[in-house]
Amino acid sequence: MQDGRSGTFVIGNEHFPASLSDLPCVVESYKTYDDSALVKTADIGQMIMVRETGDTAPDVVEYRHGLTPPMRDARKRRFRREPDLNPELVRRVERDLLNIMAGVTVENADILLYCCHLSSNSYSANEQEEDGDQNARNASKKTTPAPAAKPDVQEAAANAEEPERSDSDESDDSM
């Protein structure tokens, strides 16, 4: 160990190079005695990386990734530089978006309109193709009969004195 972070891992008669790396974040380890209650056992901040004999040692002290696939590039994502945004611009855009959602006109907004210019020849050919496709789609559809209209007049014999009630009007006192 020259720098205190590299060494040799020995298992049986085989020797492997090893290095101590810092993890990008602290990992909590837990164990259980009864498969229901967890007990915190440690906060892990470093790991020993054992390599094959021909592999090169890492150049940096801090490991770039975490222990699991979702923690890939964790240090870069967590400690990335904040974007340089003008606070006044952010306030103005937020105000404009709130105005647009409220249905109010927005001041100093640039609206880009894209217009498609079609020549009369290509338009008529496309229109004929669309009409043919539409007729083919409608031919395969079955027409469904319209539901019969219910009369608005209540039958006097069925509910002579009480108004008609729905299921939601009944109260449930069982709760």
Unreliable spans:
171-175
**Helical coverage, percent range:** 10-25%
Counting DSSP H or I runs of 4 or more residues, the number of helices is 3
Which structural class do the helices and strands define? Answer: alpha+beta
* Biggest sheet statistics: 3 strands, antiparallel
Can you count the beta strands?
3
Describe it for me?
Residues 171-175 have low confidence and may be disordered. Among the domains are: 6-78, no CATH class; 87-121, no CATH class. The chain has a three-stranded antiparallel beta sheet with strand order 1-2-3, with no helix packed on it. It is 24% helix and 22% strand. It has helices spanning 74-78, 87-102, 120-140, and strands at residues 6-11, 14-32, 38-50. The protein has 175 residues and is of the alpha+beta class.
Secondary-structure map:
Layout: E1 6-11, E2 14-32, E3 38-50, H1 74-78, H2 87-102, H3 120-140
Antiparallel strand pairs: 1-2, 2-3
InterPro entries: TAF7, TAFII55_prot_cons_reg
Subcellular location: Nucleus
Keywords: Nucleus, Transcription, Transcription regulation
Structural descriptors:
175 residues, alpha+beta, 3-stranded antiparallel sheet, 3 strands, elongated, Transcription factor, putative, nucleus, transcription regulation, TAF7, TAFII55_prot_cons_reg
Short structural summary:
The protein has 175 residues and is an alpha+beta fold. The protein is built from three helices and three strands, in the order E-E-E-H-H-H. Helices cover 24% and strands 22% of the residues.
